[in-house]
């Protein structure tokens, strides 16, 4: 049943199985145990997550312990607490995966027991949510978690009935979770009320669902390749998109590009309404809505001149003052703004006097001396150097006592010291502000 998976992996691979004790994961566990007899160098562990929401959950944990002890498989048991919200099952899934992934070893692969019925349920859920190709593509057979961790679903092509028949023929013992019959949960309703009745009329419905999802996956993959190549022509940084030349592209493609840009670099799929708002307020009618932003959970999308930006949420630091007492050592800045260091590659500036208090600030209300007696508001300097409004209180300003010396990386302030043979030092700002 999992021959295809075994052929894909190294025969001394480390495997972590997500083991609930139910029919699906029990079948996968015993399938792996059979293959381990043939390939003894396979390293197999299991992890059981106790959701603590069923009065029988303690007994389920004990059942999993008993089974793993009999077949000599190491087992991790972890308890989790799930917030009681409307999207209970989705929250449980996210918390469960986070715990499991945190317990994976380097280069270990994770296995879950998703099957064909799960695929079909996922398709219906995606249709309910109004998903695009990404959602309609369903659950992937293999998924990269990070650079060293991969998730496999070896049973994805098999129906639950097939798993049940294999379990019966091999005298397996598993848990029956009565919550699977509670139709207040969307997935259970789809499984028990919709798919069950559809299969009575069309027995091959689930297999055809799987075929359609494979087609959706191929189409999405091809579309994303086209969009990625197009994005490269318009990216300034990964979080900054130059939209000046996008006007020559048809509206539908512009919308797809914006969606892909967010999906690729923020790892979320924006809603239809969010994408429409970005296009309408930031691209089509931006002159009317000059200060409009589109909020997301951890970031926002804003426009400045001919570019739109993905802006991470940060705490305000404009009132913060950081003293650089020992400026022979790097000064760490707050809110992921990097550090300021003294080195030979930096900008040459006047050296502070012995008793000067060297400090960094992030705002000033005074006019800036650019040349001799010419002063200008700092706002004009930001505009001249194309600094967008949300970054203007994130640029470090170097002060000696209360005197502004240097807008770091942008402008050295003109003052009497600068025009004489003054002692100097060189400083650099090592930062990644363009990613914020």
Q: Helices and strands in order, then pairings?
A:
Blueprint: H1 3-8, E1 14-18, H2 23-38, E2 43-50, H3 57-70, E3 75-79, H4 88-102, E4 109-111, H5 116-129, H6 133-136, E5 142-146, E6 149-152, H7 160-169, H8 186-201, H9 205-232, E7 235-237, E8 240-242, H10 251-266, H11 272-284, E9 293-295, E10 299-304, E11 307-312, E12 322-323, E13 331-332, E14 339-350, E15 358-361, E16 368-371, E17 374-376, H12 378-384, E18 397-400, E19 403-407, E20 411-412, E21 424-430
Give a quick summary of the entry.
The protein is α+β, with helices and mostly antiparallel strands and 436 residues long. The chain has helices at residues 3-8, 23-38, 57-70, 88-102, 116-129, 133-136, 160-169, 186-201, 205-232, 251-266, 272-284, 378-384, and strands at 14-18, 43-50, 75-79, 109-111, 142-146, 149-152, 235-237, 240-242, 293-295, 299-304, 307-312, 322-323, 331-332, 339-350, 358-361, 368-371, 374-376, 397-400, 403-407, 411-412, 424-430.
Question: Mind explaining what this structure looks like?
Answer:
It comes from Buchnera aphidicola. Its main location: cytoplasm. Keywords: ATP-binding, Cytoplasm, Ligase, Nucleotide-binding, tRNA processing. One of its GO terms (molecular function) is tRNA(Ile)-lysidine synthase activity. By secondary structure, this protein is of the alpha+beta class. The chain has 3 domains: about 5-210, Rossmann fold; about 235-310, Chorismate Mutase Domain, subunit A (Up-down Bundle); about 320-435, no CATH class. The protein contains 12 helices and 21 strands. The protein has helices at about 5-10, 25-40, 55-70, 90-100, 115-130, 135, 160-170, 185-200, 205-230, 250-265, 270-285, 380-385; strands at about 15-20, 45-50, 75-80, 110, 140-145, 150, 235, 240, 295, 300-305, 305-310, 320-325, 330, 340-350, 360, 370, 375, 395-400, 405, 410, 425-430. The strands form 5 sheets. A 6-stranded mixed β-sheet has the order 3-2-1-4-6-5, sandwiched between helices. The model has no long low-confidence stretch (mean pLDDT about 90).
């Amino acid at each position: 049943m999992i021959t295809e998976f075994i052929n894909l992996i190294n025969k001394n691979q480390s495997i972590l199985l997500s083991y609930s004790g139910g029919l699906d994961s029990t079948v996968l566990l015993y399938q792996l145990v059979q293959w381990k007899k043939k390939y003894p160098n396979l390293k197999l562990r299991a992890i059981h997550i106790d959701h603590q929401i069923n009065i029988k959950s303690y007994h389920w944990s004990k059942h999993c312990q008993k089974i793993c002890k009999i077949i000599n498989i190491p087992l991790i048991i972890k308890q989790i607490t799930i917030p009681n919200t409307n999207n209970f099952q989705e929250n449980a899934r996210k918390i469960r995966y986070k715990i499991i992934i945190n317990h994976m070893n380097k280069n270990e692969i994770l296995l879950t027991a998703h099957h064909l019925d799960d695929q079909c349920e996922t398709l219906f859920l995606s249709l309910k949510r109004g998903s695009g190709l990404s959602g309609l593509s369903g659950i992937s057979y293999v998924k990269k978690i990070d650079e060293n961790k991969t998730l496999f679903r070896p049973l994805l092509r098999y129906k639950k009935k097939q798993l049940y028949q294999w379990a019966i023929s091999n005298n397996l013992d598993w848990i029956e979770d009565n919550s699977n019959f509670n139709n207040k949960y969307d997935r259970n309703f789809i499984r028990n009320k919709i798919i069950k009745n559809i299969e009575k009329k069309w027995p091959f419905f689930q297999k055809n669902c799987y075929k359609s999802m494979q087609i959706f996956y191929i189409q999405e993959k091809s579309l994303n390749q086209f969009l990625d190549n197009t994005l490269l022509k318009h990216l300034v940084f990964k979080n900054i998109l130059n939209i000046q030349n996008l006007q020559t592209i048809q509206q539908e493609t512009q919308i797809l590009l914006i969606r892909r840009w967010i999906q690729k670099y923020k790892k979320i799929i924006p809603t239809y309404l969010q994408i429409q708002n970005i296009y309408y307020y930031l691209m089509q009618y931006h002159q009317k809505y000059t200060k409009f932003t589109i909020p997301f959970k951890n970031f926002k999308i804003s426009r400045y001149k001919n570019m739109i930006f993905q802006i991470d949420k940060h705490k305000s630091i404009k009132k913060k003052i950081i003293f650089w007492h020992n400026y022979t050592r790097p000064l760490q800045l707050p809110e992921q703004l990097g550090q300021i260091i003294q080195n030979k590659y930096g900008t040459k500036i006047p050296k502070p006097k012995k008793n000067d208090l060297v400090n960094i600030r992030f705002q000033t209300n005074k006019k800036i001396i650019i040349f001799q007696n010419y002063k200008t508001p700092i706002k004009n300097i930001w505009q001249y150097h194309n600094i967008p409004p949300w970054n203007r209180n994130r640029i470090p300003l170097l002060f000696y006592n209360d005197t502004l010396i240097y807008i770091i990386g942008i402008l050295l302030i003109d003052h009497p010291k600068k025009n004489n043979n003054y002692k100097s030092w060189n400083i650099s700002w090592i930062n990644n502000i363009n990613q914020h």
